[in-house]
């Protein structure tokens, strides 16, 4: 049941301005925005003094593992981590067991998501079993509300198959999201290829493995007219290819993960497998190029690539350990850091973490949403669905893996002091995080 809320004392962040205002929420929608708002008796008051008040965050790239990988994460535990990180919607990746490659598994994930406090929107696999050989029945999944299709964890290696998938996707009006790594170039690699990988005796995954597939898929999208989204770009050259394609009119969006903005390959010198991820951490020049691209708008979104793993999957030799990091509870602060730290523009923060991701996932109020998902990434105006994030920019939380709400603890940021924290999260008009504590 929704409740009446008054979020008071904060600075409301719209796409065009940041202004002191209160937000009144009634029956699940924003009823009023302005200074000195009056609230009816029984209203729950949420103090936002010194905070930014913006739309709830939307993650385009969350691994929830369920069905099949519940030891690492469940839809419920991942959703709890997400809401504590300020998220009110996440797009669940399809590399589950079985894969989310048919209507039955999509429906299962939707059902599990509806039992949580946020919106969990499944993506669908491009190929059956994510095996890269036969196209999955995208039409039946699209009929249930799936708007993003990906074989994430592995790019579609067969160019001809990817072309047919794009032609199919264009007819359905959906977006194909690609994990860009050519396995003929990357296979066996476990960190960025270069002088450091050679000195450590580790096989590298070269940047060109990513860039070759980025170039291929941009050309295929140009030829087919299909909407393309590039997952977790990690190199400066990938950004150049993206910019060149957009200048030609290619319909493409792209995301970056917080770890590629804030960590570099030198951390792998410890052989600590918490730093193993695909695509791998790159050099300082690539990280700087990614931060610049995010600031100037060439990168559209920050997506967590939240990839939980149980200890036994990480407690192995570096080249044998599972790749991936958890990220839902640290992404907001790391994005603020990447966008300038204390000088970061809150409009840019909510643009790359909420408004643009919501548009890519087609969760904005203007989109035709199937499956009962609420509108996300709003402009904070009366009548909008009340999905909100209140950011305490004066908080300086220290990352403690054991306090994370994810079922897995494989964070590379243990002990790091963050530049901000989530004070409150409101989803579907209900306060689900209050003063940093989960309520349900």
Question: In words, what does this structure look like?
Answer:
With 440 residues, this protein is an alpha/beta fold. The protein folds into 2 domains: 5-53 and 381-438, Urease, subunit C, domain 1; 56-360, Alpha-Beta Barrel (TIM Barrel). It has 13 helices and 21 strands. It has helices spanning 75-84, 103-114, 138-142, 159-172, 183-186, 195-200, 207-224, 236-247, 258-262, 284-296, 311-314, 331-338, 346-360; strands spanning 5-8, 11-13, 18-20, 22-26, 29-34, 44-47, 51-55, 57-62, 87-92, 119-122, 148-149, 175-178, 191-192, 204-205, 227-230, 252-256, 301-302, 388-392, 421-427, 430-434, 437-438. The protein has a 7-stranded mixed β-sheet with strand order 3-2-7-18-19-20-21, with helices on one face. A 5-stranded parallel β-sheet has the order 11-12-15-16-17. The longest helix is centred in the middle third of the chain and has 18 residues, at 207-224. The radius of gyration is 21 Å and the shape is globular. The two termini are 13 Å apart. The mean pLDDT is 97.
Q: What name does CATH use for the topology of the largest domain?
A: TIM Barrel
Low-pLDDT runs: none
How many distinct domains? Answer: 2
Overall CATH class of the largest domain:
Alpha Beta
Oligomer: single chain
Mean pLDDT comes to 97
Q: What is the CATH homologous superfamily assignment of the largest domain?
A: Metal-dependent hydrolases
C-alpha termini separation: 13 Å
| Radius of gyration, taken over Cα atoms and rounded to an integer in Å | 21 Å
Provide the spatial order of strands within the biggest beta sheet. Answer: 3-2-7-18-19-20-21
The count of β-strands is 21
Q: What is the helix content?
A: 25-40%
Q: Categorize the overall geometry.
A: globular
- Supply the CATH architecture of the largest domain: Alpha-Beta Barrel
Total of helices: 13
């Amino acid at each position: 049941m929704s409740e009446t809320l008054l979020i008071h004392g904060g600075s409301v962040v719209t796409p065009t301005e940041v202004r002191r205002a209160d937000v009144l929420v009634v029956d699940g929608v924003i009823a009023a925005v302005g200074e000195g708002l009056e609230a009816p008796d029984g209203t729950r008051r949420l103090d936002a003094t010194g905070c930014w008040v913006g739309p709830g965050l939307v993650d385009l790239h969350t691994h929830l593992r369920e069905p099949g990988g519940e030891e690492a994460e469940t839809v419920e535990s991942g959703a709890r981590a997400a809401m504590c990180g300020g998220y009110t919607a996440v797009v669940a990746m399809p590399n589950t067991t079985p894969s989310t490659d048919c209507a039955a598994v999509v429906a299962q994930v939707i059902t599990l998501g509806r039992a949580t406090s946020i919106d969990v929107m499944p993506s669908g696999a491009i190929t059956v079993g994510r095996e890269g050989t036969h196209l999955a029945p995208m039409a039946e999944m699209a009929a249930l509300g799936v708007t993003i299709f990906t074989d994430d964890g592995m790019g579609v290696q067969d160019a001809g198959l990817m072309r047919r998938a794009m032609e199919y996707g264009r007819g359905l009006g959906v977006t194909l999201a690609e994990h860009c790594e050519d396995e003929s170039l990357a296979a066996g690699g476990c960190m960025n290829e270069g002088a450091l990988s050679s000195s450590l005796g580790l096989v590298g995954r070269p940047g060109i493995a990513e860039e070759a597939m980025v170039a291929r898929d941009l050309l295929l999208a140009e030829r087919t007219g299909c909407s393309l989204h590039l997952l977790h770009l990690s190199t400066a050259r990938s950004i150049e290819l993206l910019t060149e394609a957009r200048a030609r009119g290619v319909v493409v969006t792209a995301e970056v993960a917080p770890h590629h903005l804030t960590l570099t390959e030198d951390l792998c010198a410890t052989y600590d497998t918490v730093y193993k991820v695909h695509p791998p951490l790159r050099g300082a020049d690539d990280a700087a190029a990614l931060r610049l691209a995010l600031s100037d708008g060439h990168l559209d979104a920050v997506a967590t690539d939240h990839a939980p793993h149980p200890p036994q999957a990480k407690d192995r030799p570096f080249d044998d350990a599972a790749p991936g990091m958890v990220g839902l509870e640290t992404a907001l602060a790391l994005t603020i850091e990447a966008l300038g730290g204390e000088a970061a523009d809150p409009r840019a923060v909510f643009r790359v973490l909420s408004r643009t991701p919501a548009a890519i996932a087609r969760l904005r109020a203007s989109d035709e949403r199937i499956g009962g998902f609420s509108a996300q990434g709003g402009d904070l105006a009366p009548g909008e669905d009340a999905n909100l994030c209140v950011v305490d920019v004066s908080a300086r939380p220290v990352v403690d893996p054991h306090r994370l709400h994810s079922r897995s603890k494989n964070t590379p940021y243990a002990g790091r002091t963050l530049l901000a924290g989530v004070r409150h999260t409101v989803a579907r008009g209900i306060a689900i995080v209050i003063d940093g504590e989960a309520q349900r």
